[in-house]
Structure formats: structure tokens, C-alpha cells
Design goal:
Elements lengths: L2 H21 L11 H18 L3 E5 L6 E6 L7 E7 L19 E3 L8 E3 L7 H16 L6 E7 L9 H7 L8 E4 L11 E6 L1 E10 L5 E2 H4 L6 H10 L22 H7 L6 H8 L12 H4 L5 E9 L9 E2 L2 E10 L5 H14 L6 E10 L2 E2 L5 H14 L4 E4 L6 H9 L3 E3 L15 E3 H23 L1
Parallel strand pairs: 3-6, 3-7, 7-17, 8-16
Antiparallel strand pairs: 1-2, 2-6, 4-5, 5-18, 8-15, 9-13, 9-14, 10-12, 11-13
Helix pairs in contact: 1-3, 1-13, 2-3, 3-13, 4-12, 11-13
């Protein structure tokens, strides 16, 4: 057992207890009712960074939730790693579908996590993965093996679009200056098949409102004579895809990156079992854009999905009304070269154009961000690949993700740094869903792997 493994083995129980303490706090940034909880987690993480070995830690106020900044500077002649993470979490709804309360963490075994997994909202996204970096710093400081400078920037608004992060970055460019940015907010293929995320999709998120009559109407007296906003909205949404499941918004595909046959062939080398995929989701067939595989559809192709839809009466029993309004939340995942602001405008124009007479439409943009691709020949990627190879015994597979971390493109634009996405979660960890969890093995393996990234990146930077 080497010194890294020995330290982790000695402190494993404490590491898990400290993470569980964070997971108990419902830091839901989307709901103002939990604002005190969000602030409590921010304060707790500040203390955690100080205990881990940061010599300077501050909470910076924003127009929303505070940003935590901490640093451990050894020498101006050494490279600097900037770690980014977020302490806010998604709402736990629908709570009834959780097997255990979302903010009462419990460790249970599963088929993919026989050593146990922590079930709680935020376990994998992103408290558990962020906390790996805090504990990795503690380990390196305690063992006197930190080879370079490290900075932490942790925000509390990632789940609502990082509303105030861009302003903070612009105002603190010199403080945040770094040689590489390290993020663990993604996943890997499997515990025995490590992978590094090399691409993220962009995002455009909007809310739509369709209004018909000036009040709810009796469906017997007015049915068939007045436009029903729910009927209209569902037809409008259905028209946003054609029979090949291509999106029908004019101009939507104008700047879509088209991967070569060779690039698609490389992607296809990643292990994937379609039957297992369907079994895990309890579906009979996959669904998506014609001409692309499942892994291509959720990684290199843009999508449009309804995330929520409501209107009219949804209470107990019956109430026969034609509603005055109907609503939906819609997200579009975008690929590199698609500008999220352009796509949002194209959606708005198109949605207004397809509305029939008898209703009015309102489109409210919420948030968005650009896609991102990181080169596999950068020093950061090479260092990460060597780190995984050291602890997993296998060279990781580069893999594009269907998810979005909008601030990654912003980091490169403002800070001029490449981002390395070292995720340790699994697709089956149910992030954003009921029963979110994070494997104990994955949590500890992340703590073991991260110090090697620092070591190899420092060595490569000196060459």
C-alpha cells in the first residue's frame, strides 16, 4: 500500500462522515425557500478548505449566492491548477419516487456498487465529486507531496445557470490566473473502464406560455368553439420534430459540427451494450434522430426536449375546464459551433410563427451556454490520462458527453485556460433524478487519482 492509499484507508470513515454532513444540507439554489441552507453549505466548505490546507480562503458575495475562493500557493515558478465545482444541488422532486429521503444520506449496496453507494441529492452532482478534490488536497498537504500551486473556485448557482459567475471571473482574472482548470462534474464509462470527457454539449433553456381565453372556461359550453391552450401547445411541441426526429426550427442545424467517419469510428470503440442500456431503463426500444447510434445521439448531435408541461386542472377528481393558459419548459442541447443565443432567438421566432390564431405565445429564455471540446494532446489531458492509468491500471478512453457545463467555454474565453474533466461518477448514478447516488469506491478512487494528476502535470510543465 503506497502513502496515498494508506492515508485514504486511515481516514476513509472520516471522509465519508464529512461528505454525509454536507449532503444533509438541502442547498437547492432554484428554490428561495432554501437560501439559508445554500449559505450554510458555502460556509461549511470554506471551513473544509481551510482545514484541508488552503492558506487563504474567502467567501465573495455576488448578486446571488457566494463564490468560495481558496488557494495554496507554493511558488510563482510552479504551475497552478484551478479546481472548479459547485455546492448547489437540483430540487429532489418528485420526492415520492425516492427510496430514502433525499437529504438523509444512506449507504446501500447495488449491483454496480457492491462496496456501497451514498444515496442523497448532490451525492454525485456535485458535492461528492467536489469533495474528492478537497480531500485530495488534504492528503497532499498532510503527506507534504503537493507539487504545485492550487486554487479553488466553488459556486452556488451552477444548477440555475451560473448567473453571477461570468461577472466574478471578469473582475478577478488575475486572482484566478492558472495553467489548467480541473473539474469533476462528469462521469466515466464503468469502474473497470475509465474514461475522460473531452466534449460537452451547449444548452439553451426556455419556458413557453400559451394563452387562449381570458379565463378558464366550461368545457361543455365552450368546448369545440374556443382554442384550448393545452391542445395547441402539445401540437406545437409535436411539430418541433419531423418523422426522422430532426428538429424543424429553421436554421437550427446551420452550424452543427459534423464529425468525420474516422472520428465516429473512434467513438464507436467505446464499450456499449444496447440491450443492457435498454434493460437499465426498462424500455423496449431506443428513440432518436435517424442515421445515428445511441451514443452519437446523446453526445455529438443536438436535441430538443420538453422538461415539464402543465396547465388546467390537475387536482383530485374531475373539473371540466378549458384552461386559459398552458406552459412548458424546453431545453435544447447544442453541439460545438452552435451559439446558444442564436438558437434561443431561432426558437423564439419559430415558436411564435407556428402559433395559430386564437392564442398568444410568450417565450422566456432562462439560461444557456456554449459547447466545448478539449484537445487530447494538451498537457492537462496527457497528465489526466497518466493519472487514471496509474490508479486504474488502464489507459482511459476519451469520450464526449451529452451533458452541459456552460461555464467551461467561458473559462477558456476569459481565463485562456483548457479545462480537464475528470469525472468519477457513472451514468447509472441517477443525477438530477430520484435516488441519486455516488459509489464509495468511486469517491475514494477519485481521491487516490487526483494527486497523480498534480504530479504528472507538474512534471510535464517543466519539460
Amino acid at each position: 500500500m503506497n502513502p496515498i492509499q494508506s492515508y485514504i484507508a486511515t481516514h476513509k470513515t472520516r471522509f465519508l462522515d464529512e461528505l454525509i454532513t454536507l449532503l444533509k444540507i438541502p442547498s437547492i439554489s432554484a428554490d428561495p425557500n432554501y437560501s439559508n441552507a445554500v449559505l450554510t453549505v458555502a460556509s461549511a466548505l470554506k471551513d473544509d478548505l481551510e482545514r484541508a490546507g488552503c492558506t487563504s480562503v474567502n467567501l465573495y458575495t455576488t448578486e446571488g449566492y457566494p463564490i468560495i475562493y481558496g488557494e495554496k500557493i507554493i511558488s510563482s515558478e510552479l504551475p497552478t491548477v484551478l479546481v472548479y465545482g459547485h455546492y448547489d444541488v437540483q430540487p429532489p422532486d418528485p420526492v415520492a419516487l425516492w427510496d430514502s429521503p433525499p437529504f438523509e444520506p444512506i449507504i446501500k449496496t447495488t449491483d454496480k456498487h457492491p462496496e456501497g453507494a451514498i444515496f442523497a441529492r448532490g451525492a454525485c452532482d456535485d458535492k461528492g465529486q467536489l469533495f474528492m478534490h478537497v480531500k485530495a488536497l488534504e492528503l497532499m498537504v498532510a503527506n507534504n507531496t503537493l507539487p504545485c500551486n492550487v486554487k479553488f473556485m466553488i459556486e452556488g448557482e451552477e444548477e440555475i445557470g451560473s448567473k453571477n459567475l461570468s461577472t466574478f471571473i471578469e473582475e478577478h482574472k488575475e486572482m484566478l490566473k492558472n495553467d489548467v482548470i480541473l473539474i469533476s462534474d462528469t462521469g466515466m464509462i464503468a469502474n473497470n473502464i475509465p474514461s475522460i470527457t473531452t466534449g460537452l454539449r451547449g444548452l439553451s433553456y426556455v419556458e413557453v406560455e400559451v394563452t387562449g381565453p381570458n379565463r378558464d372556461l366550461h368545457s361543455g359550453l365552450y368546448g369545440g368553439a374556443v382554442a384550448n391552450p393545452i391542445n395547441i401547445l402539445t401540437k406545437m411541441i409535436a411539430s418541433l420534430h419531423d418523422t426522422d426526429q430532426r428538429i424543424t426550427i429553421p436554421g437550427f442545424y446551420d452550424n452543427v459540427e459534423i464529425l468525420s467517419k474516422e472520428e465516429r469510428a473512434e467513438m464507436a470503440k467505446a464499450p456499449f451494450n444496447l440491450d443492457a442500456y435498454k434493460d437499465a431503463l426498462n424500455i423496449e426500444a431506443v428513440y432518436g434522430e435517424k442515421g445515428y447510434t445511441t451514443n452519437e445521439r446523446n453526445a455529438i448531435r443536438p436535441t430538443l426536449d420538453v422538461n415539464g408541461i402543465w396547465g388546467g386542472y390537475i387536482g383530485e377528481g374531475a373539473k371540466t375546464v378549458i384552461p386559459s393558459k398552458a406552459y412548458a419548459k424546453i431545453s435544447m442541447r447544442l453541439v460545438p459551433n452552435q451559439d446558444w443565443k442564436t438558437i434561443t432567438q431561432q426558437f423564439t421566432t419559430h415558436f411564435n410563427n407556428i402559433a395559430p390564431k386564437g392564442v398568444t405565445v410568450k417565450v422566456t429564455p432562462h439560461h444557456g451556454g456554449q459547447g466545448y471540446v478539449t484537445p487530447v494532446d494538451s498537457l492537462g489531458y496527457i497528465a489526466a490520462s497518466k493519472a487514471y492509468a496509474t490508479t486504474f491500471g488502464k489507459t482511459p478512453i476519451p469520450q464526449r458527453s451529452g451533458g452541459s457545463i456552460p461555464i467551461v467555454a467561458l473559462f477558456e474565453e476569459v481565463l485562456k485556460s483548457k479545462t480537464i474533466l475528470m469525472g468519477f461518477g457513472l451514468d447509472s448514478d441517477a443525477i438530477h433524478s430520484p435516488n441519486e447516488h455516488f459509489g464509495v469506491w468511486n469517491f475514494l478512487k477519485g481521491i487516490e487519482t487526483i494527486p497523480y494528476f498534480y504530479e504528472y502535470f507538474t512534471e510535464l510543465s517543466k519539460k
